[in-house]
Amino acid sequence: MKRSSIHGGVFLLVLIVSVMFAGCYRMRASKGGGQINHTAERKINPKDILLTPGYSVEAIAEGLTFPTDITFDQDGTAYVIESGYAYGEVWTEPKLIRLDKTKTVIANGEKNGPWNGVTYYNGNFYVSEGGELEGGKILRISPEGKKIVLVDNLPSTGDHHTNQLIIQHDYIYFGQGTATNSGIVGRDNADFGWLKRNKDFHDIPCQDIKLTGQNYTSPNVLTEDENDEISTGAFVPFGKSTSAGEIIKGSLPCNGSIMRIPVEGGDVELVSWGLRNPFGLALAPDGRIYTTENAYDERGSRPVWGTGDVLWEVKQGQWYGWPDLSAGQLITNDEEFTSPSSKSVKPLLQVYPQNPPEPVAIFGVHASACGLAFSTRSSFGFEGDAFVAQFGDMAPDAGKVLSPVGFKIVKVNVSDGVIRDFAVNKGKRNGPASWLKKGGLERPVSVKFSPDGKSLYVVDFGILLMTKSGAKPIKNTGVIWKITKDGL
Amino acid sequence: MKQCIQLLIFLLLSCITISCASRKSEPVKGKTFTAKNEAVKQGEQVFMKYCQKCHPAGEAGLGPALNANPAPAFIKRFQMRHGLGVMPGFTQDEISKEDLHHITDYLRALKQY
User: Fold this and answer.
1) Which of A10, A17, A344 is the mutation pick for testing B, counting most B CBs within 10 A?
2) Domains, chain A, ranges and CATH?
3) In this structure, are residues A221 and A195 in contact, taking their beta carbons and an 8 Å threshold?
4) Of A259, A351, A375, A380, which residue has the fewest beta carbons closer than 10 angstroms?
């Protein structure tokens, strides 16, 4: 055989093997971390968690129901909140709990979860109430459990809620998620559970926007007739069409934003907008504010494929791109963001308010980058790096994945955007503990450093399965992990 | 020639078997990854911008694992430029030819550290 034929054969073989490894995405079934066939069991074994060399982990609390955040009082005592709501429309009682031997309950909330964030400031607790039924609120809770509402009626009765909060210069900053995945109310919102009880709810822009008039036809889930279809535009209620050039008036409070209020309560002010679901907020050692944005899902009338969650620096007055950009990149008419099972994404906005900035870092698609915290002390190490809790994918409802994404803690060098794993589960593949049938991390949702900066506390939400009938969270499976540097 | 092809297939399958451990991150390997030169450092940063979202830490996610892919670097660069299946190709304006090499340098370094 000629040498050229041999070379050709070798090339072909290499190509075939490469294609084999690349696999055919379309033919493969989704393998998300919540998609398990065996009985989900919450085992707890710190040895099943692998850490960057030089660190150790222990479980300091377990049996919690949907914990979402942690904070510390002036004495360094830890307090956690249980959300009181989880996807799958499971309602429990929101709680602020002191992490003592008896898990003393400091305060209870109403049926308006999820409580997503808590921070301690000048002798009081501040809690962000997600507001799935009545709208979001920011609460001040005294150490004796007395609650005062600082702001309410935040637009939270949709897919995403009032998120985590921080306090800087006597202002409470908080994230507010969008009502929808990508601007259009559709059947997926009925699947979430809210559309049928809140038929007129939709996204509210923070400033005036001009629409392209792009409308989407979907089954009319508000009627019994299965063949009934309805047309819906952007930033309007289900079943309302829009036209080219139509102006939607902006107002506050608004969706997809970071807003702030004075720490004593008062009018809502806009900080930044155009963020899909800015869940985590944290202060860096230099005083800058950062947020994690949960990017688009491949669902609903306007599915968007392949958008990674983003770490942004929060800048006053900045627009970040939702619903037509992701991580600063246009998602419209681009194969990179076109769902393999759908048409290309059409623009909703005729005029973009601003050019978004460069993202700080881009996480895995569907990783659900949630709470974050900055290391501020050399006693822990990695000073100035952001530690990010990744809740993990909610495939297949949020979109298909070939392998579980997230379910770990990563650290980010915010100066160059490099992401490195910090705490992951042991196993041949990445995934939540229940998927691996082990006792490590399940769904990390928040991280906070202790006041002395020596320990990183990880709030692990617990088991949330993805079944054929949707999300299925399991009560009493939440855990608090504590990570410390060896030798301290 | 037949023996040659058989040997080649055997070698490739051996490579696949040896390199199929797709997890290469610091906690899994128990040691710190340090970019040994500027090319690897640059490759890691470009990887973070364009590749990480589908192949987090080189593992499978939305896309397949890269750490377990035994294809030679030139095939990977070809795929990055032209795409394959649902993976989009990246233009020269997005990833320069030089940076394609930096990415494959990084992937090789990640496999071997």
Assistant:
1) A17
2) 64-394+406-412 (2.120.10)
3) yes
4) A351
